[in-house]
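Justification of resources, computational component.

The compute hours requested in this renewal are based largely on the per-chain cost of generating structure records like the one below. Each record pairs the submitted sequence with a full structure-token output. That output is archived, and it is also reused by downstream analysis tasks.
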Amino acid sequence: MSDRTSELATLEKSIVQEKCNLAAILGISGLGKTALSLHLIQKIQHNFECVIWRSLGHSPPLETTLKNLIQFIANQYPPNPPLARGGEEGFLPTSIPERLSLLMEYLRKNRCLIILDDVQAILGSGQLAGNYRPECENYSILFRQIGETTHNSCLILNSWEPPREIIALKGENSPVRTLQLKGICAATTEIFRQKRLLNPETWENLINTYRGNPLWLKIVAATIQEIFRGRVAEFLKYDMLFLGEELAATLHPQINRLSELEKKLISHLSLEANPVSLEQLLKNAELSPSELFDGLQSLGRRSLVETEEQENETLFNLCPVVRQYVISNPVC
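The structure output for this chain reads:
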């Protein structure tokens, strides 16, 4: 985690010093969002009275998540009368507004750190980034309440993409922050050493191609060790970007959730060898300006499109791994 020092410092400052209420750690699968959150807890937990970690990987209903959070905090700070457990609701409110009100009361009275992992599981497929699955739409109420009201706690969301409220509420002077994770370089060389890869003078080439994504590089390093006995230079002779079934499987659920507009745009971008301008995309992709802006914005929020500045013009491109996946697995 040595390469995440600056990200840890940014999060610590936002949460501990600036008292942000809601923070989202964002990025494509494999970058280490969960690992970063665990390191963050170690650094800042002494600033909180209780720490709660929950996964939304199975898309639990909001009622269940609220009940879970309330009962955990109530266990630390028993109310009078006590909350019931198990199937008996007792004094635990049954309606979402009442449960939300009770949770917010706890978050005002106590300093709690709540981490919700795999938040993308409650977000929808076939839509632009940030929209909810129909049965999870009411999570927007929770996120908005925590981001907009005054309390003493902090909620951290780990997700492939930001829920729409996060985009609307975030800002330097706002209690809502986002951190977009990028790949790491120095730490990935340790992966190569562990896999006993050879030709260290070629490692930078490999890291750049796979954008410093630790998971992608672990998969590729294992392949190089198995097929080439660790000789990276021999692997690179083939001048191809190897995905393999295992790496492709990590991308499939992320590409599979794209809207039809995004699929059309990402398919077009996969045919472009070099970064392209908005003007070129408008001309070649057969999309209206509104459609193009929506599509690029959504793909950017999913960390699937890259941008660069060139002569006061923004250019758009896919990272090599995503391009190769789309070419090998056509989405349109």
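The longest helix spans residues 62-76. The beta strands are 22-26, 50-55, 112-117, 154-159, 176-180, 276-277, 306-310, 313-317.
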